Amino acid sequence: MVEEGLNFVVSPYDEYAVEEALRIKEAKGGQVTVFSVGSEETKTVLKKCLAMGADEAVLIKDDTGETYDALRTAKIIAQVLKKKHTGFELLLFGKQSVGADNSQVPSMVAALLDLPQVNVVTKLEIEGNSGTAHREIEGALEKVSFPLPAVISAQKGLNEPRYETLKGIMAAKRKEIPVVTLQELELQPEELDPGLELVKMESPPSRQGGQIIEDEPDTAARKLVEFLRQDAKVI
Amino acid sequence: MILVYLEIRDSKVKKSSLEVLSEAKRRGEELGMKTEAALVGHGVDSLASEAFRYGASKVHILENSLLSRYSPSAYTKALLSLAEEVKPEAILFAATSMGRDLAPRLAAKLGVSLASDCTQASVKDGKLVVVRPLYAGKAFARFTFKSTPQMATLRPNVFPLVDPSDSQGETIKKAVVIPESQVKDRVVDVVKAEGAELDVTEADIIVSGGRGMKGSENFELLRELTSILPHSALGASRSAVDAEWIDHQHQVGQTGKTVSPNLYMAFGISGAIQHLAGMSSSKYIIAVNKDPEAPIFKVADFGIVGDLFQVIPPLKEELKKALSE
Predict the structure, then answer these.
(1) A227 lies in a domain?
(2) CB-based burial of residue A178 (10 Å sphere; 0-12 exposed, 13-18 middle, 19+ buried)?
(3) Where in chain B is the domain with CATH 3.40.50.620?
(4) Which domain holds residue A83?
(5) How many CB atoms sit inside 10 A of residue B310's CB?
(6) Chain A residues close to B96, C-beta within 8 Å
(7) Residue B188 in this model has a pLDDT that exceeds 90
C-alpha cells in the first residue's frame, strides 16, 4: 500500500475507544494513556488523541510496515505493558483496524497478559473493580461481566466521539510524545517474525453488471421475480 | 489432523461451523489428514452426531458446567489443553462473533498467527493456502502459514456444505478442569435484538435499504419483504444507519458487516465503494434505484431503474405468488 501523501487519521473504532476512556476518566477519575505501534508519522494520530483530552501518548516505534500479522503487534503491545506500564485498569482498543481488518489484536493482548476480554462492545459500565459490557453478536447482544483489569474493544454505537477543541490542540502541541523502541522492549527479532506469509495480493474478482430495465412498476416487478426464479434460481 | 471448533447456539451446532467442517473434510482429503471436531459446553454430547454427518471422524467433547455459557478465557483454556494434547496440523473456526473472539485468543496462547475471515482455502506442498479480503474487500490476499498449527477463521455463507452422510465416529469426552475464579469474562445474559431477527451475516437473502428509503417508517416495507422471503434478513447502508432510520447491527459495508448471501436486494442504495466492499461477494445482486447512473447498477445482476415505493408493492405480490407455487 502506498501511504505517502495520505493523511494519517485515528481509525474510527479507535476513536470510540479513546472517547470511552475519556468519559470513564471524567466520571471516575484516573489517567488516559494512548499507545500506537508504527512509524514516526503515527505521532499525528497520537497528537489528535492528546487533543481530544488524553493525558499522555506513547509511540512504540516500528518501521516494519504492514505485515497483516496481528500476533506481532499484540506481542509488542503486551511487552510494553509488562515492562513499562503495569498497573492499568482498562485496556481499550478499536474492534478492528481499517486495512488488515483482523479483529485479532485485542484478544491476543488479553491472552498474552491473561486478562478477561470483551470484544465488539456497544455499552460499557465500570463499577468499582469490575465491569459489565454489551457485546454485539449475530442478532443479539451478550451481556458480559468481568473483573478489572480487562481488555475491551469498541464497536460503533459505544459513544459519539468528541471533536478536539482549540485549547486541546494547543495543549497537545506542547506535549512531548515519548518513543519506545523495539530494542528497549528486548523483543528478539525472531519472536516478531510474522507467522503468515503474504504470497500474493489480488484485486477482488470483478463483477459484470447484468440486465437493467426501465418499465412500469408492475412489469418490472414481474420481470424481477422471473429473473430470481428462472435465472438465479434463488426462490 | 485438522481440528474444527463447533460453535453451539440455541442448543444446535451453527451452520457456519458445519460449513467449516465441510471445508476441512475437503482439504483434509487432499492433505491426507483426518478431520476432528471440538465441542465445548455442558450437556452437549448429543450434538456429536451432527459433526459425524458433516465429515468429522472423531469428536472431542470438552465438558464442564461452568462452560454452559460462553467465556473467552475459559473456552480458550479448554481448547488449549486439547490442542496441546492432540497436536492438530490446523485449527479452523467459523468467522462468527464467537469465532472472531475466541480464535485469536487461542492462537496467541499457542504462539501462532491467525488468518481471519478467509473466503477460500486450498492446498499446496502439504499445507493450507488461504485467501482473505483486506481493506474491507478492496483487495484479496493469499497467505501461507509459517507456524503450526495453521489457524484460520472462515467466513460464513461462503464454503458449501458437504452432503451429510450417516457415518459414525469416535466420541471422546473430557471433563475440563477449571476453577470458577478462572472463568473471568462470563456471559451473564443474551438479549435477542428486535424480535430475534436473523443477522445479515447468516442470511441467505438480504433485503437492504439506503438513503432512498427516505425515513425509518419506510423500512417497514423492507421488513415485509423479509417476512415473505425465506431465511432473509434486513440490511442497510451507512447513510440509512447514520440517519438513525435503523440500528447499526444491520449496516452492510466497510464500517458495518461484510456479507455473502445468495441474494442481495438493494433498495435506494447508490452503491458507494464502502458499501460495495461489504456485499459484492453476494452470489446475486439486484438493485432498485431512481438514478440510472447509480454505481450499484454496475455490480447488479438485475436492476430496475424506478421508484422503489412503486416497485415494492407489486414485487411483494409477485413474490408471494411465486413462493406459494
Answers:
(1) no
(2) exposed
(3) 2-182
(4) 12-192
(5) 15
(6) 137-138
(7) yes
Would you call A224 and B315 a contact, using CB atoms and an 8 Å cutoff?
Answer: yes
Fold of B200-324: Rossmann fold (3.40.50)
**Positive or negative, the Cα torsion across B66, B68, B74, B76?**
positive
Return d(Cα B211, Cα B236) in angstroms, integer. Answer: 9
Beta bridge partners of A200: B142
- Number of residues written out for chain A: 235
Nearest CA in chain A to B274: A98
d(CA B278, CA A8): 23
| Residue A91 located in a structural domain | yes
Nearest to B314 among A142, A150, A218 (CB): A218
> pLDDT class for A68, splitting at 50, 70, 90?
confident
**Does A4 map to a domain?**
no
Q: What is the DSSP letter of B282?
A: S
What distance in Å separates residue B190's CA from the closest CA in chain A? 4
CATH 3.40.50.1220 domain span(s) along chain B: 200-324
Q: State in words which class domain B2-182 has.
A: alpha beta
Q: Which of B105, B131, B262, B280 is the best substitution to test chain A (most A C-beta atoms within 10 A)?
A: B105
pTM, two decimal places = 0.91
Of A107, A118, A228, the CB nearest to B104: A107
Report how many domains make up chain A. Answer: 1
Q: What is the CATH number of the domain that holds A146?
A: 3.40.50.620
Q: Is A7 domain-assigned?
A: no
pLDDT of residue A4: 43
Convert the pLDDT of each residue in B61-105 to its tens digit.
999 999 999 999 999 999 999 999 999 999 999 999 999 999 999
- Which of B80, B93, B98, B101 would best serve as a mutation to test chain A binding (most A beta carbons within 10 A)? B101
Q: Which triple of cell numbers denotes residue A165?
A: 477543541
pLDDT score of B131 more than 80 = yes
Q: In whole angstroms, give the CA distance from residue B24 to residue B4.
A: 7
CB contact under 8 A, B311 and A100: no
Q: Which three cell numbers stand for residue B266?
A: 438493494
Chain B residues 258-277 with CB within 8 Å of chain A: 262-263
Which residues are registered as beta bridge partners of B150?
Answer: B90
